[in-house]
Every structure is written in C-alpha cells, then in structure tokens.
C-alpha cells in the first residue's frame, strides 16, 4: 500500500475512532417508576429527555448540568410529582455531534414519549434539536447552549432559553471592562476562542460591545484553536508573543483549565488581564492555580444568588452529590422548575399548551423571579462579572471566587430589545 | 515581530515539535522494521498519559518522576502483549489487514480506558522544579517546555546510538532489508520484532507522560495524536527517524506560523503541507520509494 492510501485509511480510521470510541450506546433512564405514557390521566409517570455531551473535555459540566436536572426531578417527585404523575429523566450522550443529538431526541420522543427536552451544550446541536422541537411540538429548554440565534434567526415557540445568550454575555463583560478602564485610555486586546460558531459569535459580540461603549482598543491577536484540542501550544505562544493588555477568552471547561495552566507557565497573568468564563467548577479544578486578578464571568453562580430557595437547593445538592452546584446544575434545576410551573399552569403535558401559557410569565425558580420574555422566550437572567480573588473562600472549599463588589449586569442593559429580536426572527 | 516575541514563538514551535517527535519516532521505528502501520500507537500514548495522572494522584510530590518510569512501562507491557497476542499472526498479510486489526485495538483500548479512567478530562501539574518560567531576552519561557525539548533530544540521540552503534541496531536495520538472511545468521527474529514493537510502544507511553502536565488528558487524545504523528511520519518519510525529526519540526513551525498569519487556517496549513509533500515526494522527505 502506498503512503497516500495508508494515510487515507489512517485518517478515516482515526475519524471513526473519535466518533465511535466514546460509545453512546442508546439512552438510559433514571428515577421514578416504570412506564412512560404521555397523557392527561393521573397515576404512572412521564418522561423528560436530556441529550447532552457526556464525553470529552466538556463532559464534567454537562454531567453537572444533568445532576441539577435530576435533583429538580427528584424534588418534584418528593412533592407528589406533577399533575399526579411522577417524572422520569431519560438521558443520552450526543458525542458532541448534531446528528447524534438529533437522533437521540427523535428516539426519546418516539420511543420514550418525552414531554419536554432539556438542551445540549453545543449550540450546533441545540440548533438541530430546536427544529425537531418544532416538528414534534415538544418544548425544549436550553440551560447550557446560549447561541442568541436560537431565539432569533431560528426561533420557534417551542424553544426556551434560560441561560444568558451570546449577545448578553459578552456585552456584560464589556460593560464591566468599560467601568474599570479610564475613559479614552488606549488598550490592546487579544481574543482566544474555540473555532466554531459559539467562539466566533462571542468574540465578535465582545468587540462590538467595546465599540458601542467607545472603548479605545486595538486588537493585536485573535486565535481560534479547535474545540477540545489537546495541544494549543502554537496558538498560545502566538497570543503570548503579541503581549495584549487584555485577553477575552471564550473557552470553557477543560479547554479553559488547560489554557489557564499553560498561560500561567508563561507568567502571562502578570501583565495581561485575562477575561474568561471562570465558574465554580473551573476554580475548583484550578485550585491554587486560579488566576487572581483575572476577570471572570458566570451565568448563575450559586454563591452570589441569595434567596431561601437557592439556599435549600445548595444544601440538597451538596447532600446528594457531595459538592456545591455548578452554574450548569443551577440553570438545569431552574429550567426544570420553569417547565414544571408552566405545565401545572397549563394543566396538561401538551407542548403546544405550554407554549401558550409560559411566555411572558414570571415562574418562581431558585434564580429568583425572572420573567420569560414573550417576544423570544429568553429568561431575563442577569450575567455576573467580577475579578477573581487572590484568596480562596474558606466557606466554599477554599475555591477562589469573585471579589466584592461584583457586577450583576441587568438584563435590560445587555440584551437585544424585543424590536431588535423581532427583526431577526423568521 | 520583536525579539522576545520571536523567542516565545520559536520555543513554542520547538516544544510542539518535540512532543510530536517522540510519538512519531516510535511509529516510524515500528514501520521501518516491521512494515506495519500501528494505529494502536495512539492508545499507548494515551495510556502513558492516563497512567501519569493516576500516579501523580497517588504521589502528588514525586509522582511525575515515578510516572516517567511507570507510564512507558505500562505502554511497553501493552505493546508486547499486542505484538505477541495479535500482530504476530498478521505479518506478511496486506497492510490493510494489519491496519484494521490495529484500528480495532485502538477502539478496544479506548473503551477500556473509559472503564478505568472515566470520561472526564484529567490534568496534572508539572513537577515543582520546572513549574514556572524564566526570562530569555525579554520573553518569559515556560520551564516545562525545556523538559519536553530535552526529552525529544534524549530520545532522538538514544535511537541514533541504538541504530548505528549497537549490534541490536544493526539487526533492526538488517531486518528491513532482508529478514531471511538474518534468520539464517541465527538471529531470533520473533524476539526482535517483539522488541522493536515494544520499544515503539514504550516511546509512545513516554510521550504521553511527558505531555500530560502540559495538555488535557482524556478520551479522544489517542485518535488526535495518531493522525498528527502519522502526518509527521509521512512528511519525513515512513521508517526514517531523522525524517520524523524533520517532519515534526516542519509541523511545529507550520502550526506556529499558521497561528500567527492566519489563525483560522492554522490546522489547514498542516494538511496542505502534507499534500504538497505527497504530491512531490510520495515517499516523504527522507523515505525511500516502496519497492
């Protein structure tokens, strides 16, 4: 065999391996009793579906998002279930592939008769599943995937987004930065983001927000390493060599941890302020290597949201899983609360009825009372931005959190208006 | 670009090249002697890295140095097992058959790794002595990059000594040219094959340990590295250790240049380069045309 033939064989073999080695192996269900028919009669159970990425660099937080959902369901069931039925969670791994996510969802709807879906991590998968939600008239709640086009360009009434989206998040960060920097002071900026729609959208959203806020900045380097690349050495050394004052990083999970450690080995944090999605899980993984002085943003930090329901949730979560909840667990829990509240209000598990009653309302969740905006079904969730503390917080396992005061970016300040949203919707 | 930026990037490129070289050297060594494309080479690499994370978990202080021995040993044992249990029966078959067999092994090892180590990405810190950076003409250089580069030099030098200055090396080179003559001269060729294959696996395991403190360790790294290492080996010429060294340098530099000049195209750069080499010299820069 010639090298070229071998190469083709090796490449296709390796590609196959990356898809199949992880082994999704169908769906599994947990909790509640057996049976799964949808419908209005009392007794029995209903299924809700979670198709998400349970493998690879982002697995740790999609799993914790799933734990939030499972805890919400077991709390629901402990309170007698919903409309007289126990709720069961059906879950499957999407292997970070839209086609797998879509086929998971299809099989959950047709075989397991799920009455609601709780969304994936990657927006590309979310987008595929959103179309299925509309086709099958099954509502889908996005608590992790935050592409703003899900609620604009590809909007369907069957989709709900509780997580702050790709317009809101970078805008909140830019607002915080604009507050910190003296007006008119020139700064240099680098960006570092995974090479797919989320990374590119978030980065351009951030730069656009800087423009809107009249920040005097110059982009000196933009890098887009592949998602979950094990070796980012070349991209990082290019960024380090450009010596930016600020770096906006849109990586997350294992990728962000790897970036932080390697950047630290360059002494990068001494002269550059890195802005990244440093949530509780990341800070815990980084421990004493947490980048003090860097700017973190978080979508729902449990330690910053103060209300009795949140306190109970944190206590129960800790009792069940032995750790504090991540942002993803918190948002997952709240998303299930929204669905349950809406279903009770509709008096039915019918997806279409839910889409009639839920928009425009303010379901009580552990995040507080946040409205689900009628025009795009975006929950008015604020974004939290702050500077990472030099010292670990003794109350929370010595994890480095944000310094006080942090910035809770108000929804109205960072989101598109309904008029802007309407103009983008189909 | 100023001098400090140049230094930062050059060392970045060198360290990328070094980690690639250790993996590709093993791959190309095995191909040279056994005429076998071993996809499972990626598994040995991954198990080396995974073993390192486990050992460091047990001994947080001295763990890395222990892992430097344990990781390659794990890979060596796997390699010898694979050679004696499976591949021995496939010599002389078509390349495609061998390729498929080693591909199957890669999948099996990947599933086993999921059982043992789970799906989460793991990471370890570099040992304290090399966990920092030093200044060099205005640039900050990660000390651990030096460890990776040194490891590649030791591996490269060691292989060169082995192949050119020892009887074993002479036999390894002879087996490529004429295995039958070698058998007639009383060499236990089966042992030789097992040994070479084991050595290749050991190198992959070593590479896994060496990169573990710098990169993310987890599922999928086996398939990622095998593609990269194979590109390096093909560019340099399959079977040539020097070729692998040159190939990995080219890839390291191309990736760094790519990340600088056209960040979104950085990974495309490498494949383009490979296509060019394949078109002009299908047997690679230092390889020899298939007979």
UniProtKB/TrEMBL annotation, chain A:
GO biological processes: amino acid transport
Keyword Signal: yes
Pfam families attached to this UniProt entry: Peripla_BP_6
Alphabetically ordered keywords of this record: Amino-acid transport, Signal, Transport
Family statement: Belongs to the leucine-binding protein family.
Signal peptide: 1-23
Coiled coil: none
Domain Leucine-binding protein per the UniProt entry, residue ranges: 46-392
InterPro entries (alphabetical): BCAA_transport (IPR051010), Leu-bd (IPR028081), Leu_Ile_Val-bd (IPR000709), Peripla_BP_I (IPR028082)
Name of this protein: Leucine-binding protein domain-containing protein
Organism this protein belongs to: Leekyejoonella antrihumi
PROSITE patterns assigned to the protein according to its UniProt record, in alphabetical order: PROKAR_LIPOPROTEIN
